[in-house]
Amino acid sequence: MIIHLYNTLSGKKEEFAPLKQGEVSMYHCGPTVYDYAHIGNMRSFVFADIIRRTFENSGYKVNQVMNITDVGHLTGNGDLGQDKIEEGAQREGKSAEDIIRHYSDAFFQDLERLNIETAGTKFPRATEHIDEQIELIKKLEQGGFTYKISDGVYFDTSKFKQYGKLGSIDIEGQREGARVEANPEKKNPADFALWKFSPDTSEKRQQEWDSPWGIGFPGWHIECSAMSIKYLGETFDIHTGGIDHIPVHHNNEIAQSECATGKTFVNYWLHNAFITVESKKMAKSEGNFMRVTDLMKREIHPLSYRYWLLTSHYRTPANFTFKAVEGTQIAFESLVHFVARYSGGKIKQDIINDILGDFQNDFNTAYALARLHHLIEKEPTADAAATIVAIDSLTGLSIERLAKEVSSIDSETTALIEERKRARDVKDWKISDSLREEIESRGYMVSDTPEGALVFKKLSSLV
Ligand code: AMP
Ligand code: ZN
Description:
Layout: E1 4-7, E2 12-15, E3 23-28, H1 39-57, E4 61-66, H2 84-92, H3 96-113, E5 121-122, H4 130-142, E6 146-149, E7 152-155, H5 171-175, E8 192-197, E9 216-218, H6 220-232, E10 236-242, H7 246-261, E11 266-272, E12 275-277, E13 280-281, H8 292-297, H9 302-310, E14 318-320, H10 322-341, H11 349-360, H12 365-378, H13 382-390, H14 392-395, H15 399-407, H16 411-425, H17 429-441, E15 444-449, E16 452-457
Helix pairs in contact: 2-3, 4-6, 4-7, 6-7, 9-10, 10-13, 10-15, 11-12, 16-17
Bound molecules: adenosine monophosphate and zinc ion.
Residues 29, 31-32, 40-41, 43-44, 241-242, 244-245, 272, 274-275, 282 line the site of adenosine monophosphate (AMP).
Catalytic activity: tRNA(Cys) + L-cysteine + ATP = L-cysteinyl-tRNA(Cys) + AMP + diphosphate
Cofactor: Zn(2+)
Main location: cytoplasm
């Protein structure tokens, strides 16, 4: 089965050729667990899940790794500023360990809400791989790619001729000059820290380790190289992350990995575009930071958010508004209610093949969803319902489970439905209409069909 992927490295859509026949190895940059992940972050995690499902449904064995950053990611997103975990600990007056545990738990809870498969995925933590990171830095030191200055050991980007091959180097982003001063001791502006020394102040870091260069902690980028090489090998198939990682983090991962091993690090680099809110980046400082639980407070089911994500292509920025997601929740609900109506149909294999083809074509999820809606309009049958359920292993929308949940009606509502039927039988439309309103006010949707009234819960009432 042929899969086409858009590779940031070549700037083209390419046919996927695995390193090992029938297997795919992939690494995803995961969350920095100093705060809650927002719904923008969720796009990159849902995207990783969609890639996994596409390969699994295409017959591949998937080796998947997503890291948990629990040290070394600095507030400047470069080599200066405070460690985000230490900052979180100070902010909340807790230990680094408590911060990591709390926000990792919240992260896994969100993955579950969005039906992101985790059972077969490894989630290594940076703090549990300090030795591997030190070993990698030692290799780079032996190869002459490093130098030491007062605050740490740095990678000398001038020693790697292909530095920046993934895309433009955002020098400004690296310096982070706006909030913290650039480091004048660096040889080249793009050079980055591999190991940082603990500051020489009375304030002791909560997380620090001994190393051949002195007590300190690893730079942010080295964890991804060390852990991906450990679990997937020196060369692996696919690496993903949000587009913000292209200029710095991923160029740095390539530089340090390829200089340490002498091999190509990754064959296919995939990046998702951002979720914006009113066309602005989602950030605490913008006041538009939103979590999955914030959507739930507005009666948006997490799987409706997943559905909304799939309605746009992962490489296109998507602008979040409550109105847009509420609208897609209604479209999604129509699929769920449709499946709830029928049972015992036969799967339409031609539709399954077409939809798998959409996913294999650089994850054209929007087209796949449009096909499902076309199907229920054109052929509202039990076969269509069985097909939608079968496609769930690709879309991950949990439609079968939701169809069961919307069909569970409490006894009081069942009594109202019976009463309404009796009113309709004697053509008492006034009573029938007021009973409909009452049933709907309880979170149900009523549709009258030639076979009688169909009553299902609304997705908003499952939240
Ligand atoms: P972080 O926790 O900041 O390291 O980010 C985790 C992942 O989310 C990374 O792959 C980021 O590139 C990605 N990401 C961050 N913000 C957004 C956003 N607004 N939209 C989509 N992806 C994002
Ligand atoms: Zn990474």
